[in-house]
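Quick one, tokens below:
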């Protein structure tokens, strides 16, 4: 009887710990998702005004036909691509495929534009990826 009480106490502690971990993960995923959504809304508005300046400095990465597409999904996509490329410029894969020998474009751009692209446009995408990953881990842990 005494062993049964110890076993049930340990099982209860494990179950309550897993519930606490799931709650923490769910709130973390929700926070990251809401932060990513808020940043995406702000980035959508700013993209309409800053796309010309970003294309002036980084437009050589894209084909000339894409530079004429100034609408919201196109400008948000291009500016997010620019921001992620600047953020990960030191990585081998980015330097090999995305920069294609045009690293000098990053050095010529103004510091404020580079900071805007990295902190606003790369961060909303990374927050969204983080929210999906943490939500998936939470779902996997809840099945245990």
């Amino acid at each position: 009887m005494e062993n049964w009480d110890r076993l049930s106490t340990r099982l209860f502690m494990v179950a309550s710990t897993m519930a606490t971990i799931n709650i923490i993960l769910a709130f973390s995923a929700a926070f990251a998702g809401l932060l990513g959504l808020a940043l995406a809304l702000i980035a959508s508005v700013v993209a309409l005004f800053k796309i010309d300046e970003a294309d002036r400095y980084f437009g050589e990465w894209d084909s000339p036909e894409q530079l004429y597409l100034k609408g919201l999904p196109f400008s948000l996509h291009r500016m997010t691509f620019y921001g992620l490329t600047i953020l990960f410029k030191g990585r081998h894969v980015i330097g090999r495929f995305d920069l294609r020998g045009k690293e000098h474009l990053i050095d010529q751009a103004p510091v404020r534009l580079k900071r805007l692209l990295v902190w606003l446009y790369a961060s909303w995408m990374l927050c969204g990826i983080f929210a999906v990953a943490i939500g998936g881990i939470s779902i996997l842990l809840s099945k245990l």
